[in-house]
Amino acid sequence: MAAGSVSRRYARALFSIGVDRGNFEQLGKELEDFAALWTGSAELRDALANPVFKASEKRAVLQSLLPRVAPTADVQKFVLLLLERRRLSAVPHIARAYREMADEHTGRVRAHVTSAQALGPAELERVRQSLARRTGKQVIVETSIDASLIGGIVARVGDLVLDGSVRTQLGTLRDKLLN
């Protein structure tokens, strides 16, 4: 089975628990916190993947660590299940799939906005509102800076790409002049 479908299956299981109990947002936050810990700690990944350690020792490590990262019993049980099934390496993918499900459930979309310079709060809010009108959904904006754009912004919302960068406009102008 492909890694993406496995991740979605596990994410869907935890998501349905969260929806039933009305705390899917909290579960998603805790899952993302654990995924960030997993991604950021080579020692943790190495210790839990090392065959020298017994399964009971790995479980004890997680049981002592999880209450600080994921206080909800559902997420703790979920992570321990992933350990048992040897799927901990999929945690970042599962967290991403969970976030996509939560966004779809709540009518949110995530937009990635790249600009030549850092955008101020007012500019960022105008971009967010413009994207919200365009998509008809609540928009969560993630930003990055790429000086090669020269000016303007590039916004990506799912498959939709809105490119208002000076670099692209200059490239279009060059193509028109050459043709």
How would you characterize this protein structure?
The protein has 179 residues and is α+β, with helices and mostly antiparallel strands. It contains eight helices and four strands, in the order H-H-H-H-H-H-E-H-E-E-E-H. A four-stranded mixed beta sheet has the order 2-1-3-4. The chain is elongated.
Q: Tell me the number of strands.
A: 4
What order do the strands of the largest sheet run in, or round the barrel if closed?
A: 2-1-3-4
Low-confidence stretches: none
Helix count equals 8
β-strand amount: 5-15%
- Shape designation: elongated
Order of helices and strands: HHHHHHEHEEEH
Measured between the Cα atoms of the first and last residue, the distance is 49 Å
Tell me the quaternary state: single chain
Question: Helical proportion?
Answer: 55-70%
**What is the arithmetic mean of pLDDT?**
94
Round the Cα radius of gyration to an integer and report it. Answer: 21 Å
Helix/strand/pairing category:
alpha+beta
Largest sheet: 4 strands, mixed
